Amino acid sequence: MPRRVVHGGVRAHVSRFTALGLIAMLAVLFAPIGFTAAAPREQGGVNIRILPINRARLLAGQRFDFRVEVSGALASNSDAGAYTVLINGTPASQVFGKEPTKTNVAVNSAELTWRGVSLNQAGKYDIYVEAGPAKRSVSYEVVRPQANGRPAKNVVLMIADGMSWPSLTIARLTSRGQTEGKYNELLEMDRMEATGYFSTSGYDSIATDSANSAAAFASGQKGVVNAMNIYEDNTTSTEDDPRVEHIVDILKRTRNMAIGIVSTAEIEDATPAAMIAYTRRRSDYQPIIDQMFERKPEVLMGGGAAYFIPKSTAGSRRTDERDVLKQFRDAGYTLVANRAEMNAAGTPERLLGLFHPSNMNVYIDRAQTRDPAVLGPYTDQPSLIEMTQKSLDVLANTPNGRQNGFFLMIEAGSVDKQYHPMDWERGTADLIEFDQSLAVVKGFAAQRSDTLVVVVADHGHSISVYGTYDTTKGPGNPDGIGTYDQARFPTYVDRDGDKFPDSWSPSRTLAVGFANHPEYRDDFLFNPRPLSPTIQDPNAAQGVTRFVPNPARDPQGVLIGANIPRNSGTEVHSVDDTPMFASGPGSAYFRGYHDNTDMFFGMMNALNIDATRNASQPTGSAAGTAIGFVMALSVVVGASRYLRRPGTEGVGPISFMVHKAARFGTALRAAAASFRATLHDDR
Ligand SMILES: [Zn+2]
């Protein structure tokens, strides 16, 4: 019923009877909108699906693909041309200034697609589609950013993947400690200008993954699990789904800003990739890297080198012979493969740092335990703190960064990756490292007051701290857990003042649990080596995936039963609202409750982005071409200058590094593979 109110005479009718309109609006509000808006509803044997979905919010000028899918027993293929598609009463082709592409994905299915269109005026847009007996309408909100006061020149978006509110408590307790119930010092995150919280659901499910949730920050749209900056269409291809222009494309197109993407995860992993790629499937690493290369962010640093080298090179995980490292080098990038090289690189115009074939090792393993069996040959990986400093140095000095500003995304990828196996100490150390990286960003911003800093998680985990554990009571003794007055205070010590506890095995540790888990054992003690909590059940029937406790982890621990499906080998994301902090120009927006899609608009507001304009437009197309030519020439000059520089030739270091990894030892690689398998790569 409420879907029809915007059509023709009925609309006039409703506008005369405001009460009826109100009732219709309430009906829309209380209906399960996320589901009904996304899923087609059959009317007279015909379904209509409109993408973007109902209640989508777009930036004025933000480019998107608009698609209407009509299917069902009575949806004859020949109908496509006869469908009515109106935007505020005007035919869509007239509004967009172009005709749609017409396709038939299947028998009794027809699609109309307008690619790369935009709506340039702010306001509400009612979309009405009529196909045979079926009618359907959705509405979009188009907004024009407005900086509240002086606009920001730069934005640094910091994402602690999987951080929840209790994560902050645990980091503060272990990093700063308390004296008689008061913290000795606060975290950097505790000392920001704005504090808020936000919800993270996608349009397919209340529970999100990192692709979907990070893409909400990047393009302001709700998505589906595993997807980035697209609306899922009815084809099987993961590359052709209707796109909505993301932050990197907008900032490059409208202002030619410099871009930096930094993560401790594989750089092609969900959160970093969501800033810069469009895909239905986050595990499409090769196309994601192709899209990264096309966009040429000035700074790209993290793990994931195995997808940058040709298939025939030892350690490669590519399926083709493309040498992406060589392509980056040829495009003028300085390539670095370890901390020493990164430090020696100075401030090149373009920097690609790949420090591990897969995810970088976590802080505890990288900087504290330094166990050769865990690190392998990767003994000189930079910290996130050092990568943060380097990326700021490069972006603030690169010509377009200096002139037009920059957007830098910094992710602590392994807070999430360590919470999944319920290794809370490793997750916490990486969160402290993230917080120390924030200290670097705040130091940078304090000197200039033109930089918005936004700190968010992308989703939560069900972690909670409820007391302490007396380790003298041995492994896995529930009576060693102190609750209420018996909890007392943990005994972590930070003698060297680096904000990390010197040891994760003090006499009294924290008691930390997770609300969802597979069946596993917990002995309440720190694991000197990372181990999966589960293994695949060797007794499971053929073709059945079922996890049981890993006999090698916490063998004396208490057995904790599964409360999630047995085919999940790790803890899963929570649906809980997650923390949000901001400082600098535009930060006031980030107070109170928000939806995750709001982050995008908050950043666009702060930068005062006009997405209806292109950076090269104001000087006219001839001048634009000249600028393009000069830019291309400077790239060539830069590349040749780079090629002449001694000591930077070729892809040597990373190839060598990956090659060594391939030979590092079958046992370790097998262990790593089984560990990765339990981590469910697709989440
Ligand atoms: Zn995760």
Q: Would you kindly provide a written description of the structure presented here, covering whatever features stand out?
A:
By secondary structure, the chain is an alpha/beta fold. Among the domains are: 32-143, Immunoglobulins (Immunoglobulin-like); 466-574, no CATH class. It contains 21 helices and 31 strands. It has a ten-stranded mixed β-sheet, with helices on both faces. The protein has a five-stranded antiparallel β-sheet with strand order 1-2-4-8-7. Strands 3-10-9-5-6 form a five-stranded mixed β-sheet. β7 and β8 (109-117) form a beta hairpin. α5 (165-175) crosses α17 (424-446) and α14 (384-397) runs parallel beside α17 (424-446). It is globular. Bound molecules: zinc ion.
Summary, kept brief:
By secondary structure, the chain is of the alpha/beta class. The chain has 21 helices and 31 strands.
List the helices and strands and how they pair.
Elements: H1 8-16, H2 18-30, H3 33-38, E1 41-43, E2 46-51, E3 57-59, E4 64-71, E5 84-87, E6 90-91, H4 92-96, E7 101-103, E8 109-117, E9 123-131, E10 134-143, E11 154-160, H5 165-175, E12 178-179, E13 182-183, E14 194-199, H6 210-219, H7 247-255, E15 258-266, H8 270-274, H9 285-295, E16 299-303, H10 324-330, E17 334-336, H11 339-344, E18 351-354, H12 363-369, H13 372-375, H14 384-397, H15 399-404, E19 406-412, H16 414-419, H17 424-446, E20 451-456, E21 460-461, E22 463-470, E23 481-482, E24 508-514, E25 520-522, E26 534-536, E27 547-549, E28 558-560, E29 573-574, E30 578-583, E31 592-595, H18 598-607, H19 620-644, H20 652-662, H21 666-678
Parallel strand pairs: 3-10, 11-19, 11-20, 14-31, 15-16, 15-19, 16-18, 17-18
Antiparallel strand pairs: 1-2, 2-4, 4-8, 5-6, 5-9, 7-8, 9-10, 12-13, 14-30, 20-30, 21-29, 22-23, 22-24, 25-28, 26-27
The structure holds zinc ion (ZN).
